[in-house]
Write a structure and sequence with these properties.
It is a single chain. With 324 residues, this protein is an alpha/beta fold. Helix content is 29%, strand content 16%. It has helices at 44-56, 75-83, 104-110, 124-131, 136-148, 168-172, 174-177, 201-212, 276-281, 286-298, 319-322, and strands at residues 11-15, 61-65, 90-95, 114-118, 153-158, 181-185, 216-217, 228-231, 239-242, 255-258, 263-265, 274-275. It has a 12-stranded mixed beta sheet.
Length: 324
């Protein structure tokens, strides 16, 4: 559908859980966060109702997120249910990769069309410092298997910051070694992200060009969202940048988010939300739900205003509770 600023909104990110086995320093405190009660989390049937209304409004791309989505019981069943909805063109997932390897075949059979794996470093010590968890070898093994069984689209997500700055070129080299796209996602000042100094696109691109040669911008669209991709000589995959801070892309934003407890979020930085769970549980019909969602999406904010929005307007939840 078209929002009030004439943007086409066709991409919905659905958080299926606020739980995560990792405690990444920019996402969740070491002790974790207060977890949602089972009753507060959207059921599969409720998620499907929302997806069907979303399709009627022009949403054709869906990404499953968390927390860590693979902690949600019977996730493959939900993916199959979404895949069977007429009008869904892409169904992807973002994961930390720890539990992924043993479930890849089932996910592919259920209809997943792409998997993004978060890897901020290939150094075991730095990995444990950032995630507060062991398991780098398991994550990389999941990446290799996703490629081996030919998941249609495999990407690596990396959040550049001072803690992993020396590792960024090595992360980028995954796109040289494997047919995967590596995306660098600028740190955003949301939740614990406010405490960390991110590294911006231009600096990373300059470092990569010194090592791997001149980067050439890609014209083709390679994903659901705002990433801008570059090709490097002899690389099998592309290098992408999601640069919300240094190269704001709000005028082309095409996404909305659904939290695990049913809040429809129109922009990461705004605390305002429309609760679809309560609306559904009040007895709303499919037609009423679709109209409710239309009104919400139409009023999506013009821009994130990360450096301007303060006070009660600003999102205060941690990223794990938002869905990223």
């Amino acid at each position: 559908m078209i929002d009030q600023y004439n943007r086409t909104i066709d991409y919905l990110r659905i958080s299926v859980t606020d739980r995560c086995n990792f405690r990444c320093v920019y996402c969740m405190p070491e002790e974790g966060v207060a977890q949602l009660c089972h009753h507060d989390i959207l059921t599969f049937d409720e998620i499907i109702k929302i997806c069907k209304s979303a399709v009627k409004l022009g949403i054709h791309r869906i990404k499953i997120t968390g927390g860590e989505p693979l902690l949600r019981k019977d996730l493959e069943h939900l993916i199959r249910m979404i895949h069977e909805i007429d009008g869904i063109h892409e169904l992807t997932m973002t994961t930390n990769g720890y539990y992924l390897e043993e479930r890849l075949e089932a996910l592919k059979e259920a209809g997943i069309t792409g998997i993004n794996i978060s890897i901020d470093t290939l150094d075991e010590g730095a990995f444990e410092n950032i995630t507060r968890h062991e398991g780098l070898e398991k994550v990389v093994s999941s990446l290799r298997k996703a490629i081996a069984i030919q998941i249609p689209s495999v990407k690596v997500n990396c959040v550049p910051m001072k803690q992993n700055e020396k590792d960024l070129c090595q992360i980028a080299a995954l796109a040289k070694e494997y047919p995967v796209h590596v995306r660098f996602i600028e740190m955003m000042p949301i939740g614990l992200g406010e405490l960390f100094q991110g590294i911006y696109q231009d600096k990373i691109l300059s470092q990569l060009e010194r090592i791997y040669g001149i980067a050439r911008p890609c014209r083709e669209r390679l994903g659901n969202g705002p990433a801008r991709y570059y090709s490097f000589p002899e690389f099998q995959g592309k290098i992408g940048f999601i640069s919300a801070m240094s190269h704001e892309f709000c005028e082309d934003c095409n996404r909305i988010r659904l939290t695990a407890d049913g809040d429809l979020k129109l922009c990461l930085n705004y605390g305002s939300r429309w609760n679809l769970r309560d609306f559904i549980r009040s007895g709303a019909s499919e037609k009423q739900l679709t109209e409710y969602m239309y009104q919400a999406i139409y009023h999506k904010p013009r821009r994130h205003g990360f450096l301007e929005i303060k006070g009660c307007e600003k999102e205060i939840r941690k990223m794990a509770g938002i869905g990223g």
